[in-house]
Amino acid sequence: MDMTQHVLDWYDSHRRDLPWRMPPGQHADPYKVMLSEIMLQQTTVEAVKPYFQRFLSLWPTLSDLAAASQDEVMKAWAGLGYYSRARNLYKAAQLIMTEYDGQFPDQEDELLKLPGIGGYSAAAIAAIAFGRRAVVIDANIERIIARYAAIPDLLPAAKPAIRAVLDDLTPNERAGDFAQALMDIGSRICTPPRKKAGQLSQPQCLICPLASGCQGRHADPSSWPRKPAKRARAMRRGEVLILVSDDNHVALTRRPDQGLLGGMMLFPTTSWPDGSRRHVDYPIEANSLLGALLEMYQATANQHRLNQPVHHIFSHFELELKVTIMTGVRRQLMQDLLVQDLLVQDLLAQDLLAQVIWCPLTELAGEAMPSVMRKVVTLAEAHRGRFMS
Ligand code: SF4
Known about the structure:
Shape: elongated
Helix content: 40-55%
Distance between the termini: 61 Å
Radius of gyration: 25 Å
Number of domains: 2
Bound molecules: iron/sulfur cluster
Structural class: alpha+beta
CATH topology of the largest domain: Endonuclease III, domain 1
Strand content: 5-15%
Number of helices: 15
Number of strands: 9
């Protein structure tokens, strides 16, 4: 029996039961495949499951999702991270409804034209939802194949060789099941090395359906794929302000749609530039919203600065945020100043203050806030009582 058939047979009896999957040999709903594949980018299956279910109960079909507002989609995505995925998913749903008359594209090259759909997702959707022969390759599958063929080159130079081996193994029929089998092997058997009791874990070659043809299994398989030495993550620092009004509202701002945390709701914060120094208070930038708010309220509000900062790890940098809480601020003061044009001499401050969205504290939990801001809330609650009710 050839290796590919061996893997498919293994899949028939050992596959994971996941909410977006169909039984072996059957094509899945392309909407569910796209939703799950976009959610699974950089995110674990366990983290994705409740979000996947929530999206399906809110928007059972692609046209339902396309008819929602971006705000609703961002709120439902809050906490899952990498928020550009939510914006792209929403745009892709709208594009399919308008440009493709609601018919899901079924070829890789057409799928690649959708926002947020890269080579991996296009191949996965084409293979799993439409039964196309496509070479589906992500970091997990890359690891399996690099070990299986003992590919000596460092990543990313090794990618063409990995693809060539995978192309040879990929069947004409059931390419989607084959890809999902490799995903399952990557998650349960041919796992990345993890530290356990001071030692690196090894893949479970004894139960692997690829074992009989695997060249790497007898030579420290965890050393594949070969990678260049890691660079340390950059450290960034900044300040964040929780501003609570005397009528129980909290000040938020919405990030621009493009870029990091695009479209998400944040507490007023400084920018987070590279190279900010450890143990040094980050300077509040002149002409920033945070600066304008402090100037307006510092004299009258109760102010408390937390000693303990919030830490959060993004994909390419680590962030440390120092938190200031101001309570009892007069929300009306800002409205009065804006309405009466009393800040007319300071048009920049006016523009900045107009960005503030006052959210009732009782509704804060439902806002589309990223995980880093949820951590800020948790820390603030621990020090100053509950902010969310
Ligand atoms: S035999 Fe071992 S190293 Fe080879 S693919 Fe399977 S688990 Fe990975």
